[in-house]
Structures are given as structure tokens and as C-alpha cells.
């Protein structure tokens, strides 16, 4: 149930002692559970109009309560004089849809429809308060093809980084800790597997990368069926527009089982993290 717009109506309440004329604004509401709601009854009382909430709603005017005026069940087309602004939707457009490029070939109606879909599923997108999403309802696990005690190759030391790389590494780790992705490993906890993390550079931007080659050697690979490329292209053959979305830090949005978290502990020059 949400407002569609506002329309005006001139109402005339006939009475023997003199008719009352009011210009009233009404809200048009989509998917409303009732045919109408009467608001501001206290304001109408100033004019001597009393509206009784009864299964057959009616109104009386003045002190004489005997003449009862019923509401007409007739339905007519209305003309909206102005649309009700959805503040939350406008905030989505102004704050989160600045960078995305919406095709200029879309008509205003199509653009409004697209924004409505994005607003409807807004919880699937990152925001200032929730900068990182999460895939809920499923936890990823890692199965190894070896049993304890694990091979020494899975216990990797910290990488001897340069001072610049160490500074960037600490910055990346602190960011992930603020987002709740990493936690500092307790020294009284059992430690069996560690992965070295290093800093890589792309266009002067740093990125923390885990050296998972040793762990991958002993990991049983997942086997998820992937659609063939021609099947995917066939499904897209009738599409008029194709949307491209980027999952920011998508690999950090998966929940891991407690067992998998123990296998993905990372080691840096500053400390151990999980």
C-alpha cells in the first residue's frame, strides 16, 4: 500500500439552513485495504459535520442528527494534481545512483520503472550504512583431501614486505576489520593452517591478496554445473537491454563455516587474523 498522488474535490454538504462548501484534498492510495479513510474528523467538526464510523458510513450536519447523508458508492476516474514524493526513493537516486550509468535510450517511463525495481530490492545493494553486503542462508565449507596432522606446507610464514607494502597491508586489514570481515586471532587458539597475504598494485591502488596455492593443492574442488555459453546467449537473445552489475568485494560477502574459517586464517607481519 503506497500513495499514488493527490487530487482535489469540491464538496457540497446540502442542508436546509444553508449548504456547506469545502475544497478538500484526497490521497489516492494503491492496494488500499479499504475503499476510503476519513481523516481530520475534528477539523470537520468545526463546521458541524460529524462522520460516524459504522458499517454503513454516514454523516450528519449540525445539531439535528436525524437527517443522515450517506457516502455515494459511485466510482469515477480522478486526475492527479501532483504526485506524492517518496523521500526514500529520491534518496536512493541522489545518493546511490550517481555513479551507475543508466542508458540515455530509456524513456522517462522506462527509467522510472527501473528505479522502482531498484528501490523495491534496495536491500540487495550497498549503502553508506551497509557498505558491504552478505549472502545469507548459505555457508561455504572447505574440504581437504588430507587428514590431521596437516602437511607443513599449509603453515605459511609472513611475507617479508617492503615498508610501503606493510603500510598498505595494515590499511587493508584495518578496513576489513571495521567491516566485520576479519577478526584478530587469539594466541591461545589452536593454529594449524596459515595463508600468506601480500599487496599487489593496479593503477596506483593497492589490493590485499592471499597466496592460496598451498591450500588449493590439498582442497577438494567444488563441482558446480555452469551453463554453456550458447545457452546463456539464447536466453539473452530477446533482451532489449542488458544490465551489468559489479559486486564490490564479492568474495568477502560469503559466510564460512567455522571449519572453513580455521583453514583461511591469514598471517601478516603485524599479526594473525581470521
TrEMBL record:
InterPro entries given in the database record: DNA/RNA_pol_sf, Retrovirus_Pol_polyprotein, Rev_trsase/Diguanyl_cyclase
Name recorded for this polypeptide: Reverse transcriptase domain-containing protein
Organism: Austropuccinia psidii MF-1
Amino acid at each position: 500500500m503506497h500513495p499514488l498522488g493527490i487530487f482535489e474535490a469540491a464538496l457540497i454538504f446540502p442542508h436546509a439552513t444553508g449548504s456547506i462548501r469545502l475544497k478538500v484534498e484526497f490521497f489516492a492510495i494503491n492496494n488500499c485495504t479499504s475503499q476510503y479513510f476519513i481523516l481530520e474528523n475534528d477539523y470537520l467538526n468545526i463546521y458541524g459535520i460529524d462522520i460516524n464510523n459504522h458499517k454503513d458510513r454516514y454523516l450528519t450536519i449540525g445539531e439535528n442528527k436525524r437527517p443522515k447523508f450517506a457516502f455515494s458508492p459511485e466510482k469515477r476516474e480522478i486526475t492527479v494534481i501532483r504526485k506524492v514524493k517518496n523521500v526514500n526513493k529520491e534518496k536512493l537516486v541522489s545518493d546511490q545512483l550517481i555513479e551507475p550509468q543508466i542508458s540515455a535510450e530509456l524513456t522517462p517511463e522506462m527509467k522510472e520503472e527501473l528505479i522502482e525495481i531498484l528501490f523495491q530490492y534496495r536491500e540487495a545493494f550497498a549503502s553508506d550504512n551497509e557498505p558491504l553486503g552478505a549472502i545469507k542462508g548459505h555457508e561455504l565449507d572447505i574440504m581437504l583431501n588430507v587428514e590431521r596432522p596437516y602437511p607443513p606446507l599449509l603453515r605459511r610464514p609472513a611475507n617479508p614486505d617492503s615498508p610501503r607494502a606493510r603500510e598498505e597491508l595494515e590499511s587493508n586489514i584495518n578496513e576489513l576489520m571495521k567491516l566485520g570481515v576479519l577478526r584478530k586471532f587469539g594466541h591461545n587458539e589452536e593454529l594449524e593452517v596459515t595463508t600468506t597475504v601480500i599487496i599487489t598494485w593496479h593503477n596506483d591502488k593497492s589490493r590485499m591478496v592471499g597466496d592460496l596455492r598451498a591450500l588449493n593443492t590439498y582442497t577438494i574442488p567444488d563441482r558446480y554445473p555452469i551453463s554453456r555459453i550458447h545457452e546463456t546467449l539464447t536466453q539473452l537473445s530477446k533482451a532489449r537491454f542488458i544490465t551489468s552489475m559489479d559486486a564490490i568485494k564479492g568474495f568477502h560477502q560469503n559466510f564460512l563455516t567455522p571449519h572453513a574459517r580455521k583453514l583461511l586464517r591469514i598471517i601478516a607481519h603485524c599479526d594473525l587474523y581470521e
